Amino acid sequence: MTRNASSVEEIIFEHIDGQYLTELAVTMGNIYSPTGQETEMAAFVHDWMDKHGFEPRRIGPTPERSNVLGRYKGTGGGLTLAFNSHMDITMGKNEVWRLKVPDQRIYYEAWVEGDTIYGNGVVNDKGPMAAWMAALKALRESGIKLKGDIVMAAVIGEIGYEPVDEFTGLTYIGKDFGTKYLLTHGGPADLAIVAEATNFKAGWVEAGKAFYKITIHAGPSRYTPYMQHGELKDSKNAILRAAHFIPSLEQWAEEYESRYAAEFGGGTVVPKASIGAIRAGLPYQIIRPPEVCSLYVDIRLVPGMNPLDIREELATLLSQSSVEGEVDLYLYRPGFEAKGVDPLLVDLGRAHEQIFCDQMGYPPDPPITSMWRDTNVYAEFGIPAITYGPGGSAGSGTNSLRISDLVNASKVYALTAYYVGQHQRAKR
To answer: Cα separation of 104 and 101, whole Å?
Structure first.
């Protein structure tokens, strides 16, 4: 007996249990998994996939740091669709130089109050992950057959520590061990949905990023009783010379985003620039001011932008500020606009409309498409990818997710998988 579309959708919805989904999201939200410490979370996801028949594999450079790849096998001849979410959370409890109160509950726990799940890790990104996990569980339990496979990609390192200075080794490698490693070691797909917060809007462009270390020189260092006050730019203390330079850098950053902001079909990219860290001096011996002070600057890039051009701008700015120093580029990850997304956009939009009785909006607000998300990795590999998910971005300060939004996301993901799973695959 062949079911019509409406009855198929109803059957799928019958197998999406809001209470189960909530418990799954909260359970995963209570697993501590900052970048570099994803082992427990990966074990949980692997066991869950194994229990529900998704034949999981651990794919990563070490047993301790592995992605988890599951597969819902189709009958053959169809498109392979990937659902992708990251297992690592925003912050570790050791990050005492970033937060006034490092051990805040909101960053490391998850709980329910009324109709809302609280927890930064649920928003980014375990809630959306739970939504597609529950969606594919519902498809399997409903007995619905798909032509193509559904790839379930739970990845590490998306938050993205990046090695620099003495901070090297496995712990500090992020994105190179995550989705990119997965795609080169058995996890490609024809299409991909990166399940992250977009307020249920679809985007398919993301900014690139480049990290620069601007080292400012001063000296010669003198014992405190011999230090002289005066113009900051002439100080023997590199910290004070950096203080002279920072206002110029901030003005440049404001002008930079205005000069390079660009609109794409998949969203607007407004490339921001921000000082993320400063290193200078010895806290245990402050009697001699430092001769070097380094500023670590995160600069977002419009797709197609050359990071060497930005390095030249920063070097010129340094020279114009009458400050001696140097600019090093220590990280470059390009941004992309995904190509060929129209078929996936149609199926995702159709699913969205079924749930919300309204057309899907796109693109998301500019901050969403001015981030770096794993959409970029799929696009770099030529795989059409769309970012779509419930709630607001954790980066904006959003630390909660409505249960109803999580359930609706799960329904949209399930229907999208069903719709894509009816298409025949054409070689390209």
So the answer is: 6
Q: What angle do CA 363, 368, 370 make, to 5 degrees?
A: 105
User: 285-308 pLDDT, tens per residue?
Assistant: 999 999 999 999 999 999 999 999
Which residues contact residue 88 at a Cβ distance below 8 angstroms, ignoring those fewer than 6 apart?
33, 34, 35, 36, 37, 38, 41, 156, 157, 158, 159, 174
Q: Which helix (H) or strand (E) holds 44?
A: helix 39-51
Q: So where are the chain's domains?
A: 5-206+336-420, 208-333
Task: Check if the beta carbon of residue 89 is closer than 8 Å to that of residue 120.
Answer: yes
Q: 């129209």: which residue's tokens?
A: 342
Cα 264 to Cα 192, 260, 272, 303, 426: the distances in Å are 19, 13, 17, 10, 27
* DSSP H helices in 57-167: 105-108, 120-121, 127-142
Q: How far apart are CA 62 and CA 315, in angstroms?
A: 39
Task: Please give the Cα distance from 196 to 394 (Å, whole number).
Answer: 10
Catalytic annotation, pick one of 9, 38, 88, 337: 88
Catalytic residue among 158, 206, 337, 347: 158
C-alpha dihedral sign at 76, 82, 87, 88: positive
Cα(326)–Cα(332) distance, integer angstroms: 18
Other Cβ atoms within 10 Å of 382 Cβ, number: 13
Contact between 232 and 243 under an 8 Å Cβ cutoff? The reply is yes
- Indicate the Cα dihedral angle 45, 78, 16, 67, nearest 10°: 10
3-state secondary structure 182-236: HHHCCCCCCEEEECCCCCCECECEECEEEEEEEEEECCCCCCHHHCCCCCHHHCC
pLDDT class of 350 with cuts at 50, 70, 90: very high
Rounded to whole angstroms, the Cα distance separating 176 from 354 reads 37
For the stretch 26-45, pLDDT in tens is: 999 999 999 999 999 999 99
> Is residue 158 among the annotated active site residues?
yes
Q: Are 195 and 150 contacting, i.e. CB atoms less than 8 angstroms apart? A: no
Q: Which CATH class is domain 208-333?
A: alpha beta
In single-letter form, the type of residue at position 216 comes to: I
Q: Which CATH architecture has domain 5-206+336-420?
A: 3-Layer(aba) Sandwich (3.40)
In this prediction the pTM is 0.94
Q: Does 5-206+336-420 match 208-333 in CATH topology?
A: no
